[in-house]
Amino acid sequence: MPTTMPEPLTSAIRVRGLKKQYGSRNAVNGIDLEIGVGEVFGILGPNGAGKTTTVEILEGYRKPDSGTVKVLGLDPWGQGDALKPRIGVMLQSGGLSPGLKPLETLRLYAAFYQSPDEPNRLLDLVGLNDSAQTPIRRLSGGQYQRLSLALALIGRPEVLFLDEPTAGMDPRARATTWEIIQALSERGVTIVLTTHNLAEAETLCGRIAIIDRGCVVAEGSPGELTGSVLRPETVFTSIAGLNLDPLRSSLAVNAEMCRETLDGTYVVEAPTSTQLVREVLDFLSAFDAPLFSLATGQATLEDVFLQLTEETP
Amino acid sequence: MKARGVLAQARAETALGLRRGESLVVTIGIPVGVLLFFGRVQTIAVDGDPLDFLVPGVLALAVMSSAMVSLGIATGFDRRYGVLKRLGSTPLTRSGLLAAKTLYVLAIETIQLSVLIGVALLLGWRAGGGIPLAFLFLLIGTIAFAGLGLLLAGTLRAEANLAVANGLYLALLFLGGMAYPLTKLPSAIRSLAELLPAAALAESVRGALDSPIDVPVKSVVVLVVWAILLPVLAAKLFRWEE
């Protein structure tokens, strides 16, 4: 039992100057993170960037070489016994005994926690009712992931770590998982999400840190991150194979800046002004060609990601 | 360490152990088979009642099969499947997990010893000498073989661990003075066998069940040394992730 009152928590996770070396390689090279209570925080980065090492230090699996790490005000390595009842972990893969059944496994894990959630309720939540008594070795990859998610929730965690939670899930299971994550966040659960699915990060995360070579190379909301990369561009679709020369001359751009990227998809590297829209319509009506769609080519998180992270040699 | 979690984990381990058919063959099938076969078919001459020789041998064999083979292989696959890693982020502590696995081994041993002693009594075996002492030696043997099983499980890949544990089981069955006396072995092999934990356990239990009790001091010393050495090595070298 703590002998002093814990300091009030403004942030659920606070990391300062975190470093971790494996041999001569700096897996994590000075990372700072501040994650607020109830936030869904995305950690993105290429393979080998230091994401997993960072998250495993937060989960208490690894000891940092230097820096301070606090999760719910506790040091995950030194105060793991106090922290573990309050966190939930979903590993990227594995973790479950193939010979046990889902309900059995949930009941087992429920016994580890002081006031666990109801195993049947969680099976229902992740949509595994019909497989409650199927040996885990016979679950599909997506079912296995859903059970892993249910197990991460069984202790009613205050902080939830999800590593690639929707990998291998079908679209419906993924949608369900996203709903679960959003609902948990609304209830004040702090969620740390590692993912390769940039659409997932864009949809779920309030803030994102992009990690590359052991450092945070960008941090902010998805909007801030995509806004920081300028890519003024207009995309319209029509029938394939139109001669773009009239449009190029009316816009005074070269062939590189106005081109057909896919059959029927045309890109103009210019901001979507009313002037430009008018020119496009004039161009299409000259050919009597229909306009199927016209969109502002806003930078996606993927563009930001690719621009900021270097290719691993 | 919360008792409820430890008990739940022990129950799950036991359920899994009883579901693994191959594990039951090694823990129950082979010791009972050895007892029945060598107890009924007198292939090898021993002084006195062959059951007085065989029963302590199969009790030692049973301990070796549950503490080393069954525990070791299960733990190796727990490690392979990331079960140990996943448990590492729950409130079940490492000592809690070790306690659960201890309870699992004791549960399997309780079943084994009940079956084996039952069969032995049906065959006409009568317990002599120091039964509590025999149980003490079986407990020390459990510690030694569990140490060996966990040492293999925590250092080898799951498949290698499976092969080595089963191979050692067979080798130690032959070199353990369990189904036939060590005196039948060539003297060079015999002196090696006497330094291994299997023969040390079988001989200690046999001495305890002799009437009068006749404990071979050398065997007990060898057994205790293994029971200290192997768990210490396991604790030092065990890797939680493969």
Task: Please tell me about this protein's structure.
The complex is a heterodimer of chains A (313) and B (242). Chain A is an alpha/beta fold and 313 residues long. Chain A has a six-stranded mixed beta sheet, with helices on both faces. In chain A, α4 crosses α5. The termini of chain A are far apart. The longest helix of chain A has 16 residues. The relative contact order of chain A is 0.13. In chain A, a hairpin with a 2-residue loop joins β11 and β12. In chain B, α6 runs antiparallel to α9 and α9 crosses α10. Chain B is globular and about 55 Å long. Chains A and B meet through α3 of A and α1 and α4 of B.
**What oligomeric state best describes the polypeptide chains here?**
heterodimer
Count of the separate structural domains of chain A: 2
Q: Quickly count the helices of chain A.
A: 11
State Rg of chain B. Answer: 18 Å
User: How many distinct domains of chain B?
Assistant: 1
The largest sheet of chain B is: none
CATH class of the largest domain in chain A: Alpha Beta
Shape of chain A: globular
How many strand segments of chain A?
13
Q: Tell me, rounded to a whole number, the average pLDDT of chain A.
A: 90
Give me the strand/helix succession of chain B. HHHHHHHHHH
Q: Look up the CATH topology of the largest domain in chain A.
A: Rossmann fold
Helix-strand pattern of chain A, N to C?
EEEHEHEHHHEHEHEEHEHEEHEH
Structural class of chain A: alpha/beta
State the CATH architecture of the largest domain in chain A: 3-Layer(aba) Sandwich
The CATH superfamily of the largest domain in chain A turns out to be P-loop containing nucleotide triphosphate hydrolases
Unreliable stretches covering 5 or more consecutive residues of chain A = none
Shape of chain B: globular
